[in-house]
Design a protein that fits this description.
The structure holds 2 protein chains of 2 kinds.
Chain A (H helix, E strand, L loop, with lengths): L8 E4 L5 E6 L11 E5 L6 E4 L13 E6 L2 E6 L8 E9 L4 E4 L3 E5 L1
Chain B lengths: L2 E4 L3 E3 L5 E8 L7 E7 L5 E7 L6 E3 L7 E6 L4 E6 L8 E8 L6 E4 L3 E5 L2
Parallel strand pairs in B: 2-11
Antiparallel strand pairs in B: 1-3, 3-8, 4-5, 4-9, 5-6, 7-8, 9-10, 9-11
The chains are: A mainly beta, B mainly beta.
């Protein structure tokens, strides 16, 4: 039961920029940090962005995050074949008193 | 380096219980929450709850409130998640993941444990 809405798919050619949206409510994105994860096929999720726009060490600066109001976005610039994966946003929800994840977006490199 | 190593795959019959372990290393165990997140085949991520290793209290998602129990053993830096009254819809990969702070989603994740519920 995902509370955060993402587009099911996104695609681009190598070198292009792809943006993924994550839409929520005032109780989650509107009042808490957004995190983004990358999940390669058959593997565990990996943290890409924390606290809306911060990159953990080792994550390329091709990945960037932003937040405005009750929505957030993940941008991948200079798209590469190894970026083909599922991407999820996440945030704490004050009403549910728990964490909620996005519906997930599959990125395809054409 | 931070590592979360989970127990192996399980096959259970409907109505049974399953207990999955998650052994932490590479950081101060008592300083971070451990979350449990599951992913059904071909589906998205679903948060089940978290436990604070500093104390016995756990916080569960409402959906799992009646069926899940999270415990920890500080002597071995291991956290356990037990899910009871299993049904076929509980077939999923179960992940443990480390969390920093009350309202921050997890950062490091375990490798996942496949639980299959089948008669």
């Amino acid at each position: 039961q995902s509370v955060l809405t993402q587009p099911p798919s996104a695609s681009g050619t190598p070198g292009q920029r792809v943006t993924i949206s994550c839409s929520g409510r005032s109780s989650n994105i509107g009042s808490n940090y957004v995190y983004w994860y990358q999940q390669l096929p058959g593997t565990a999720p990996k943290l890409l962005i924390y606290r809306n726009n911060q990159r953990p060490s080792g994550v390329p600066d091709r990945f960037s995050g932003s937040k405005s109001g009750t929505s957030a976005s993940l941008a991948i610039s200079g798209l590469r074949s190894e970026d083909e994966a599922d991407y999820y946003c996440a945030a704490w929800d004050d009403t549910l008193s728990g964490f909620v994840f996005g519906t997930g977006t599959k990125v395809t490199v054409l | 380096q931070v590592q979360l190593v989970q127990s192996g795959a399980e096959v259970k019959k409907p109505g049974a219980s399953v207990k999955v372990s998650c052994k932490a290393s590479g950081y101060t165990f008592n300083s971070y929450y451990i979350h449990w997140v599951r992913q059904a085949p071909g589906e998205g991520l679903e948060w089940m709850g978290r436990i604070n290793p500093r104390g016995p209290r756990a916080h569960y998602a409402q959906k799992f409130q009646d069926r899940v129990t999270m415990t920890r053993d500080t002597s071995t830096s291991t956290v356990y998640m037990e899910l009871s009254s299993l049904r076929s819809e509980d077939t999923a990969v179960y992940y443990c993941a480390r969390g920093d702070g009350d309202f921050n989603p997890p950062d490091y994740w375990g490798q996942g444990t496949l639980v299959t519920v089948s008669s």
